[in-house]
Amino acid sequence: MLGAVDDDVRARLIVFALITLFAILVGTTVLGIATNWPRHRTVPGVSSYQHPKTIDATVTGLAAVRCQVPAAHNCSNVTIRLDSGRNKGTSATIRFGDTGSDAKVSLGDKLLVYKNPLPPGARLAGVKVPPYSFSDFQRQQPMLWLLAFFAVVVVAAGRFHGLRALVGLAASLATVIFFVVPAITDGRPPLQVAAFGALGVMLATIPLVHGGGAKSLAACLGTAFALLLTLGLADLFTSLAHLSGLTTDEAVYLQSTSHVSIKGLLLAGMVIGSLGVLGDTTVTQASTVIALRRANPTLGWKELVTHATSVGRDHIAATVNTLVLAYTGAALPVLIIFSLGGTSFGSALNGEVVAAPVIATLVGSIGLIAAVPVTTALAALLALQLPERRLRAEHVHVH
User: Fold this and answer.
1) DSSP per position, 344-388
2) CB of 202 within 8 A of CB of 224?
3) Tens of pLDDT, residues 251-292
4) Which domain-ending residue is among 137, 170, 189?
5) Beta strands in the chain (DSSP E)
6) What b-and-e string marks burial along 73-112, b requiring 16 or more CB atoms within 10 Å of the CB?
7) Is 239 helix (H, G, I), strand (E, B) or coil?
8) Average pLDDT of span 200-217
9) Do 182 and 41 meet the contact criterion of CB atoms below 8 Å apart?
10) Among 358, 19, 71, which Cα is nearest to 212's?
11) Are residues 373 and 250 in the same domain?
């Protein structure tokens, strides 16, 4: 009888300790976000680098012309109707195709154009410069239609759970757009901002989408551990590999026009990029443990961990492959350039433009692998303390 009482007290202490740890995590995250909250929403840019103001336009006519660049083809004079700005409703003509792009313009296409800062009648290489130039295609409408279709599919497939997933996705994007990006722009340390931002996303989305029970508690603690491990490894190996982050035009632009730490931005990207797969893995592991406990209440901690870990190994293999393919797809144009140039695999791998995504993949994968046993162990501890009624109430999320 005394042994049973001691076991019950020990179990309550374990649950209390985990809840206390979670409360500390929440408090630290809230304090970190408040401390790093941006004072200014925008920072003035360098005037010479500012993008010209664009004007909405619709294509109303096309006429084929000879390209000014030998390598270009399918050039045309495009008649447009201005849909915004001071000259809204008037028509103008722009040239399209001289840059050699494979993009094509059709009647009715929505474009973005900008006014050329040149005097009327100006000529370039003997050709009259049109008053407006092509900036980009207007993509908002098709993207909104796709977003609406995506939302309908998610809600139709997941019903109320799918709706909560959409709300969680909105919370994640809002954290990045309204906290992470402005805070980094405001001069806060990117790695610090990314860490608290990622923890904030985790704490907002996992309980929201999956409820506030033992499963979410174990998943949050496991994800936090894996995120901090990923952050530490990313910081260590970017230093050992001497990564600067200056591999893109955007990074060079930021270095020349702002005080943002480019290396810190690289680390922040690694941490945030791994968050999605980490959250999915930890929730799946916690759900697996709960499902095993529900199916067989006689299983002990060791049996729950053993059986759930066997499921986790399959999930690790699939998720690591997903992570590798995602980074490989992003680096595909660079790999093709190296291939065309006859660069050896070793030389290509040594270049920072390839080494950075490789290190990001490896540190993210290590964090992902470490999340499985930690989350499984925590979920098993909590599952053993759940009464049968609570076990049935826990929603199961398994792959």
Assistant:
1) -HHHHHHSHHHHHHHHHHHHHHHHHHHHHHHHHHHHHHHHTT--H
2) yes
3) 777 777 777 778 888 888 888 888 888 888 899 899 999 888
4) 137
5) 55-64, 76-82, 91-96, 110-115, 123-124, 127-128, 132-137
6) eebbebbbebeebeeeeeebebbbbeeeeeeebeeebbbb
7) helix
8) 86
9) yes
10) 19
11) yes
